[in-house]
Specification:
Chain B: Keywords: ATP-binding, Nucleotide-binding, Transport. Chain B: GO terms for molecular function: ATP binding; ATP hydrolysis activity. Chain B: Belongs to the ABC transporter superfamily. The complex is a heterodimer of chains A (286) and B (260). In chain A, helix 10 packs parallel to helix 11 and helix 10 packs antiparallel against helix 12. Chain A starts with a helix and ends in an 11-residue tail after the last helix. By secondary structure, chain A is mainly α. Chain A folds into two domains: 59 residues, no CATH class; 200 residues, MetI-like (MetI-like fold). In chain A, 81% of the residues lie in helices and 0% in strands. Chain B is built from seven helices and eleven strands. The longest helix of chain B is centred in the middle third of the chain and has 18 residues. With 260 residues, chain B is of the alpha/beta class. Chain B has a single domain, classed as Rossmann fold. A seven-stranded mixed sheet of chain B has the order 6-7-8-3-9-10-11, with helices on both faces. Classes of the chains: A mainly alpha (286), B alpha/beta (260). At the A-B interface, helix 9 and helix 10 of A face loops of B.
Chain lengths: 286, 260
C-alpha cells in the first residue's frame, strides 16, 4: 500500500486501490496496479539523475543543458526574490482575461450556430477558415492594429480560446437528443425553461471539455503573445533567458508554465466534476 | 371523455399515416391499440400528445381541443427518456415544478412508492435497470395527474417477467387517479390483460379496423379460458386486418362484446 499511496496522486485511484486491497488482502495486487505509474517515472528520473551525475563528474559541461539541480536553483531564486510571482501573475492575468473573452464569445457564437442552421450556413465556413490560420500569423497584424501593449496580447489569446469553445458548444447543441427535448415539450416548458432545464445540463459536459481545450490553447497563445514583446510574464522570462544565455532560467520558466497550466486545468476539472457526476461514462482522465 | 374525430395525418411526402380515425374513450377506460407495423399507432399517439399536428380532424378531452402539448394529456414513450442529470425523484417531479414544494414532494413520494422505487429516489437514472427506468417514466407522467395517459409500446424492450410486474405497477398507479389510458402495443396478451377495449388498426393508410371489448375485472387471470378466447379474437382480427386484397366493407360492425 505504501508504494501505491506515493505513486498514485489521485484520490479516486487511491480509493480504488483501497477497495482493491480490501477485497484481496494479498499485497501483490496493488503492486501490480502501481507498476505502470512507476514504469512511466523510470525514464525521466533516470535521465535527470544521469545528467546530474554526468555534469558533476565532469563528463559533460551542462552549459546549454543545465543539470536538474541548477534548474531547481534558478526556479528557487526566482521564487525567493518574488520575480517569479510577478511573472506568473502577469501571464495568469493575460490568460484569464483572454480566456474570459474567448470563452464568452465562443459560447455565444457556438450556441447560435448550434441552434440555428441558417446562422451556421452563414458563419461557419468563415470561422472554419479563420480557425486554420496558425496563431503566430496573427501577431504582426495584431501589433499593427492594437499596439504592443496588453490589448493585442489579450485579443490573441481570446482568438485562441474562441475556436475550440465555439466548435465544442456548437457540436454539443447540435448533438442534443431530440427525444429529451420532446420530454420538455410534453411538459410545456417555455423557451427559457427548456434552455435552463434541458439544453444547458445536456451541453454541460461537452462545454466543460471545450473550455478545457480552450484554456490549453490559451496557454499556448500567451507564449506567442509574450514573445512578441513584453516586459513581464513567463514568456518574457523565456526570451530573457535566451538573450542572457541562461538555459536554466528558460527551463525554470517552462516548468512554471507546466505547473500553472496543470493548476488552471485542475481548477476547471474541480468545478466541472460535481456538475457532471450523473454521466454514464467511464470516469475519463483527460 | 376523450374523443378523436376523423383524425387524418398526411406527411409532407404524401404518405398517409392515418385516415379518418374515430375513437371515443370513456373517462377511466383503458384502451389498447394494436396493429401491424405502419398502421399509424405511434402517429396517433404523437398527434394526441400534441407533438405533431393533424392534417384533418380534431382531438378533444372533455370538449377541450388538443392543439399542442396539453396538461390534460400525459405520455410515456417507448424508451424511458429520463433526464440523466436529474435524480430519480427529480425526474418524477420534472413536470410538476409549478406546484408548491410540499405538494410536489408528496406526489413524488407517493408515486415512487406505488412503483416500488421509494428507496431509489436519490439515485441517478443510469443506476437503474430498464424496467425500473420505465417505472420512473410512468410515475413522471402520472404525477402531473393527466386526464388521458398515453403509452407508446412502453414495455416492448423488457422481458416477459418484468413486463408482467410493470402491468401491475401501471394498474396500481392508474387505480389511484383513474385517468383514461390509451396504450399502444404489439403484444396482444398485454392488450387483453390491461384493456377494456382493444382497437385493431389496419395499415396503409392507418385506420380503425375492429374494436373488441374485454369485460372482466382486474387483475385478470391469464389462465382463465376467457382470457385465451379474447386473445384469439384479437389475433384473428389482427390477421384479417393484414390481408391486403380482401375488402372490408364494414370493418367495425363486428365489435361484439366478450364476457367471461
Amino acid at each position: 500500500m505504501d508504494a501505491s499511496t506515493i505513486t498514485k496522486p489521485r484520490p479516486s485511484s487511491l480509493a480504488a486501490e483501497a477497495a482493491d486491497a480490501a477485497l484481496s488482502p494479498t499485497a501483490p495486487r496493488s503492486a501490480v496496479r502501481a507498476r505502470p505509474v512507476v514504469l512511466g517515472l523510470v525514464l525521466p528520473v533516470a535521465l535527470a539523475l544521469g545528467w546530474e551525475a554526468a555534469v558533476r563528474l565532469g563528463l559533460a559541461q551542462g552549459r546549454l543543458m543545465p543539470p536538474p539541480s541548477r534548474i531547481f536553483e534558478a526556479f528557487w531564486s526566482l521564487a525567493r526574490t518574488g520575480d517569479l510571482w510577478t511573472h506568473v501573475g502577469a501571464t495568469l492575468g493575460r490568460v484569464l482575461a483572454g480566456f474570459a473573452f474567448g470563452a464568452l464569445f465562443g459560447t455565444a457564437v457556438g450556441a447560435l450556430a448550434g441552434a440555428s442552421e441558417r446562422f451556421r450556413w452563414f458563419f461557419d465556413p468563415t470561422l472554419q477558415a479563420l480557425r486554420s490560420v496558425p496563431s503566430i500569423a496573427w501577431v504582426p497584424l495584431f501589433l499593427l492594429w492594437f499596439g504592443i501593449f496588453e490589448t493585442s496580447k489579450i485579443i490573441l489569446i481570446a482568438v485562441g480560446v474562441f475556436f475550440p469553445v465555439y466548435l465544442g458548444v456548437a457540436g454539443a447543441i447540435e448533438g442534443i437528443d431530440r427525444k429529451l427535448l420532446e420530454v420538455g415539450r410534453v411538459f410545456r416548458l417555455s423557451g427559457f425553461a427548456m434552455v435552463r432545464r434541458v439544453l444547458l445540463p445536456a451541453v454541460l459536459p461537452a462545454w466543460i471539455l471545450a473550455l478545457r481545450s480552450g484554456l490549453g490553447l490559451g496557454f499556448m497563445f500567451v507564449v506567442a503573445a509574450e514573445l512578441m514583446g513584453a516586459s513581464e510574464g513567463l514568456g518574457y522570462l523565456l526570451l530573457d533567458g535566451q538573450q542572457m544565455g541562461r538555459p536554466d532560467q528558460i527551463l525554470a520558466a517552462i516548468i512554471a508554465f507546466a505547473l500553472l497550466g496543470k493548476l488552471c486545468d485542475g481548477v476547471l476539472v474541480a468545478i466541472g466534476t460535481p456538475l457532471t457526476a450523473w454521466q454514464d461514462t467511464r470516469r475519463g482522465r483527460l | 371523455m376523450f374523443v378523436v374525430d376523423r383524425l387524418t395525418k398526411t406527411y409532407a411526402d404524401g404518405a398517409r399515416a392515418l385516415q379518418s380515425v374515430n375513437l371515443a374513450v370513456e373517462e377511466g377506460e383503458i384502451l389498447a391499440v394494436v396493429g401491424g407495423s405502419g398502421c399509424g399507432k405511434t402517429t396517433l399517439l404523437r398527434l394526441v400528445a400534441g407533438l405533431d399536428a393533424a392534417s384533418e380532424g380534431a382531438i378533444t378531452v372533455d370538449g377541450e381541443p388538443i392543439l399542442g402539448p396539453h396538461p390534460a394529456v400525459g405520455i410515456v414513450f417507448q424508451e424511458p427518456r429520463l433526464l440523466p442529470w436529474l435524480t430519480v425523484a427529480d425526474n418524477v417531479a420534472f413536470g410538476i415544478q409549478d406546484l408548491p414544494r410540499a405538494e410536489r414532494r408528496d406526489r413524488v413520494v407517493q408515486a415512487l412508492d406505488k412503483v416500488g422505487l421509494a428507496e431509489h429516489a436519490r439515485r441517478w437514472p443510469r443506476e437503474l435497470s430498464g424496467g425500473q427506468q420505465q417505472r420512473v417514466s410512468i410515475a413522471r407522467a402520472l404525477v402531473a395527474r393527466p386526464k388521458v395517459l398515453l403509452l407508446d409500446e412502453p414495455f416492448s424492450a423488457l422481458d416477459a417477467f418484468t413486463r408482467a410486474s410493470l402491468h401491475d405497477h401501471l394498474l396500481a398507479l392508474w387505480e389511484a387517479s383513474r385517468p383514461t389510458v390509451v396504450i399502444v402495443t404489439h403484444d396482444v396478451e398485454e392488450a387483453v390483460a390491461l384493456a377494456d377495449r382493444v382497437v385493431v388498426m389496419r395499415p396503409r393508410p392507418g385506420r380503425v379496423f375492429e374494436t373488441i371489448s374485454v369485460r372482466a375485472a382486474r387483475p385478470r387471470d391469464k389462465l382463465a379460458p376467457g382470457f385465451d378466447k379474447a386473445k384469439r379474437r384479437v389475433l384473428n382480427a389482427l390477421d384479417r386486418s393484414l390481408r391486403p386484397t380482401e375488402e372490408h366493407p364494414n370493418p367495425t360492425a363486428g365489435g361484439a362484446e366478450l364476457w367471461w
